[in-house]
Write a structure and sequence with these properties.
Blueprint lengths: L1 E13 L12 E13 L11 H12 L5 E2 L4 H5 L4 H15 L5 E10 L2 E5 L38
Parallel strand pairs: 1-3
Antiparallel strand pairs: 1-2, 2-4, 4-5
Helix pairs in contact: 1-3
């Protein structure tokens, strides 16, 4: 498997709705978006995809965000403008732009240094509907146990 990635940036503000229904104050970020695309084979030029073509596609998607409050964009009127939802939005738009034979591995959105969110379609423990796809809960006749007594400390693990 071969993979290439490109990164772009945009500046935008957002105002999150928190789980208790309250809203954060509107604030700006210099967002970074990284896209990774893969292929089993290289094309005739020895590439997965031309970097410039991939970067141009991402730049066109995020151009509508530049210097705007994300909350004013139609998609984010219906979905909280979190880094997670920005990653999902970019993923869904970019996936439609890719040539056949290429897979979009993931979109990572960095809201600020050391704070990022990643969207990957249909992977991991949870499926599209959020249900656990594998693990102890699906193993017949296995009951989880807690053999630890008292509070768990990292030294105990």
């Amino acid at each position: 498997m071969f993979a290439v990635s490109v990164e772009t940036e945009f500046r935008a503000s957002h105002q999150l709705v928190l789980s208790d229904g309250s809203t954060e104050d509107a604030h700006d970020h210099n967002w970074r978006v990284l896209a990774e695309v893969s292929s089993e084979r290289l094309n005739d030029a020895g590439l997965v995809m031309d970097f410039e073509r991939l970067k141009s596609a991402i730049d066109n998607i995020v151009a509508q965000f530049e210097n705007k409050p994300l909350n004013t964009i139609d998609y984010f009127r219906r979905h909280n403008p979190s880094a997670e939802n920005v990653a999902k939005y970019v993923y869904e738009k970019l996936e439609l732009e890719l040539p056949g034979g290429l897979g979009l591995e993931h979109i990572t959105v960095v809201e600020e240094p050391n704070c990022s969110a990643r969207f990957t379609k249909g992977s991991g423990r949870f499926g599209e509907n959020g249900q656990i796809q594998s693990g102890l809960a699906e193993t017949p006749n296995v009951k989880p146990t807690n053999n630890l007594q008292g509070p768990v400390k990292f030294d105990d693990i």
